[in-house]
Amino acid sequence: LIPALVKLDQHATLTEADRSAFLDLPVRCQTFKAGGYVARQGERVRSVGVVLSGFAYGSKVTSNGARQIISVHMPGDLISVQHAAFRKATSSIQMMTPGDVALISADDLDALVAERPDVQRAVWLSTLVDGSIASEWVVNVGRRDARSRIAHLLCEFATRLKAVRSDREIAYEFPMTQEQVGDATGLTSVHVNRTLQDLRRNGLIRHDNRTVTIADWKALTAVGDFQAEYLKQDDVQAETSRHRVEQTALSNGR
Amino acid sequence: LIPALVKLDQHATLTEADRSAFLDLPVRCQTFKAGGYVARQGERVRSVGVVLSGFAYGSKVTSNGARQIISVHMPGDLISVQHAAFRKATSSIQMMTPGDVALISADDLDALVAERPDVQRAVWLSTLVDGSIASEWVVNVGRRDARSRIAHLLCEFATRLKAVRSDREIAYEFPMTQEQVGDATGLTSVHVNRTLQDLRRNGLIRHDNRTVTIADWKALTAVGDFQAEYLKQDDVQAETSRHRVEQTALSNGR
DNA sequence: CGCCCATTTGACAGCTTTCAAATCGCGTGG
DNA sequence: CCACGCGATTTGAAAGCTGTCAAATGGGCG
């Protein structure tokens, strides 16, 4: 649970007791293959998840069979929190790549946060960031053309993966197929393909297989109309938090 | 703040002490005219709001000048919670109609929820519902055609306004201009106009001025691919909560 | 080496946008 | 009480971005 704790620690000031109480939560780790369901829309939900490795995504399917990806979850992210809160999955969550997810009983988490307001606040704020990302996605699919939508998605990934280093080429593992990019941006895989080629021809990105490299960050953020503020990842604070968290983890033998 | 308390009470079991502590929060009421800004994107935010009357909406503007409405807020809704949590507005919030908003200092709210985990949970869960709505909007603008998008929006309004009564025509005040409907659904006002006419010609709705009446709820939900579960408004519980809340309010003289 | 899934390509259709311009609705001032 | 003014609604024609439908190509894994 350490990667999740690092993220939580960014959002609230947790005490050592808070941190170890969180780390002491009983977890059930589960390994999924790509495409495996962590939750299915409509099902009863009894646990929240923490992505330990790999990528996951949330999606809904419309009555005419189209799929829309509504969220992407990276290692350390809490998933299914909204589902667990109401004990019902309002969307499906699947693995985008093979990976491991730690499952925490919703009852256990409820009990923990009822006892520890700062932990509750940290989890809460992490869900608020998820909401902020969702809002930006509404803008992305609602008001941007294909070039911008895809550019924006690539920028979001780079930022969330903390792959952005000033004045250097940015490269990262990009786990989505072109069809999934289409499902996330409200486009067809065919058009994603053509748009990706266009981005490549213009020297903004390169991509071979599963790795994307952003050749011109400034230009790509301009095309994608990307401002990172909505992700509000305070990296400085994250560094200090990681430090504190690792000490906690060591002292707890995890 | 009573309407907000009613909504919060749906999400957690609050004690009398919780309720009166919430109602005792210092508030500053402010009257806005239509179009007035409750918050501007990028600004520092020091308070959360409660819509007392009228409708509000959140929006973002893209670099090429297009506006996307990302949320609609109705009387009783908490607004700007995400902004207040990070003390910064990541979107603008404006009134859609003239109305009153109660402003609560973010510091005061932070202090309250730090003391009262159940209140924090209630506020948290209300923001999770907002997130659920935002996710559904991603689906709406990403994967549905104009007819469905608009039908879905009308269904969402009817449900959130609790205007749905079985086997009867549904009528409610609809505060959005066609341009705003376009901004919410990712369409142009011109196309919204044509699509509304289409919906009307097909006998699904009628609309004069600011009031919409849904002539065929079943058909409109089918066209809009609308399932109300994601709004998870438990009306039964809401009724009992309202009862409790009004007692609290009376005993506090509000 | 072969199968399967992801990527790529082409031609064409179609939903939505664009750009004006006309009309309507309604609050305001005369 | 009626004219005026401005924003909202309507309408038309044409352009455009994106989708659809196949079919070919490519790449990775058993």
Major protein interface: A-B, 50 and 50 residues
Strand order of the largest sheet of chain A: 1-8-3-6
Query: From N to C, what is the helix and strand string of chain A?
Result: HHEEEEEEHEEHHHEHHEEHH
**How many beta-strand runs of chain A?**
11
Q: What is the 3D form of chain A?
A: globular
| Total helical segments of chain A | 10
Give unreliable regions of chain A as ranges: none
Report the biggest beta sheet of chain A as strand number plus sense, adding barrel if it closes.
4 strands, antiparallel
Structural class of chain A: alpha+beta
Distance between the termini of chain A: 9 Å
Beta content of chain A: 15-25%
> Averaged pLDDT of chain A, please?
92
* Helical coverage of chain A, percent range: 40-55%
The quaternary structure here is: homodimer
* Cα-based radius of gyration of chain A, to the nearest Å: 18 Å
Overall description:
The structure is a homodimer of 254-residue chains. The first copy, chain A, is α+β, with helices and mostly antiparallel strands and 254 residues long. The first copy, chain A, has helices at residues 2-11, 16-23, 81-86, 106-115, 117-143, 146-160, 178-185, 189-201, 217-224, 235-252; strands at residues 27-32, 37-39, 47-53, 56-61, 67-73, 78-79, 92-95, 99-105, 170-173, 205-208, 211-214. In chain A, the strands form 3 sheets. The first copy, chain A, has a 4-stranded antiparallel β-sheet. A 4-stranded antiparallel β-sheet of chain A has the order 2-7-4-5. In chain A, helix 2 crosses helix 10 and helix 6 packs across helix 8 (189-201). The termini of chain A are close together. At the A-B interface, strand 5, helix 3, helix 4 and helix 5 of A face strand 5, helix 3, helix 4 and helix 5 of B. The structure holds a DNA duplex (30 and 30 nucleotides).
